[in-house]
Design a protein that fits this description.
Blueprint lengths: L1 E3 L6 E3 L6 H12 L4 E3 H8 L1 H13 L3 E5 L2 E4 L13 H8 L5 E4 H7 L10 E6 L6 E3 L2 E7 L9 E6 L2 E6 L1 H10 L9 H9 L5 H11 L2 H13 L8 H7 L6 E2 L10 E2 L4 E2 L4
Parallel strand pairs: 7-9, 12-14
Antiparallel strand pairs: 1-2, 3-5, 4-5, 6-7, 8-9, 10-11, 13-14
Helix pairs in contact: 2-3, 5-6, 6-8, 8-9, 9-10
Length: about 270
């Protein structure tokens, strides 16, 4: 029950209760431990003719939360009497359910506790087709189109609020920061982050991911960083082969003046020191 203020006297506004059919639907989904449902799921239970109306009523009563066309989050019966908030990551997982994707970027740094900063205002989703960005809960959802092959490795399944969510693993997260520097604001910020986090991740995985599908510029910068970290040259052979495919000479820090020693092996101007 809610009390609405009026210029004359308080007006009591009652929330419309759930019908028996609506309670049965929610109870059934709860028994099945469903976190989300689609309009097709509802059609199979109540029929095509009334499914859309049933979904609309459940959304109006806050029993379902619409996150995309024909896709809904289910609010458990026990939470119907109090306000709840579903994280943007879970909403994104419901929106992308059934499609290849993973969530990454700065949000993944926070998830893996690789940063002291809490990055929650922007959620980066990597997908294999173009999608427009959109607000989602308390965050802005941004899409980045990558090859289907890239989506097949470098991510893990994590359970958040009862939902399985695909998230870039720590090594993929660092590769993405170098491949897509705009994720961290561009200029030299992504490089600074990678340098700081590099000792805490699996270097063999970094080399594997970069060799399989990273940009040549990422292979160049990563190769130099790993060389500085003391990684044996024999472990960098495959990464160096990728670098030999390009004739580009680049600056280690794209946001700094192009001055410094030239590393011939990686074809990088060391302007970051």
């Amino acid at each position: 029950m809610k009390v609405a203020n009026n210029t004359t006297k308080p007006t009591r506004v009652y929330n419309e209760p759930l019908s028996r059919r609506e309670v049965a639907l929610l109870a059934g989904w709860e028994r099945e431990r469903r976190v989300s449902v689609t309009l097709d799921d509802i059609r199979r239970i109540v029929g095509v003719a009334v499914a859309r109306d049933v979904a609309s009523r459940l959304v109006a009563k806050k029993a379902l939360e619409r996150v995309g066309r024909g896709r809904y989050l289910v609010r458990p019966l026990r939470t119907q009497s109090r306000p709840t908030a579903t994280s943007a990551a879970v909403q994104a997982a419901v929106l992308l359910e059934g499609d290849p994707y993973y969530l990454g970027g700065l949000w993944a740094l926070t998830f893996h506790r690789l940063s002291d900063q809490g990055y929650v205002s922007v959620l980066d989703a990597f997908v294999d087709r173009r999608r427009p960005g959109r607000p989602l809960g308390s965050a802005q959802l941004a899409f980045h189109r990558v090859s289907s092959e890239r989506l097949r490795y470098g991510s893990i399944a994590a359970e958040l609020e009862g939902m399985s969510v695909r998230i870039s693993d720590p090594e993929r997260t660092l590769i993405d920061l170098l491949d897509f520097p705009a994720l961290a604001g561009g200029s030299g910020e992504p490089l600074r982050m990678v340098k700081q986090i590099l000792p805490r991740v699996d270097r063999a995985k970094l080399i594997e991911y970069a060799t399989r599908g990273a940009r040549s510029s990422t292979c160049q910068r990563l190769g130099l960083l790993l060389e500085r970290a003391g990684v044996a040259p024999r472990r960098l052979v495959e990464l160096h082969k990728r670098v030999l495919e390009t004739k580009s000479v680049l600056s280690m820090d794209p946001g700094a003046p192009r001055k410094g020693p030239f590393n011939r092996r990686w074809r990088v101007i060391e302007n970051d020191r």
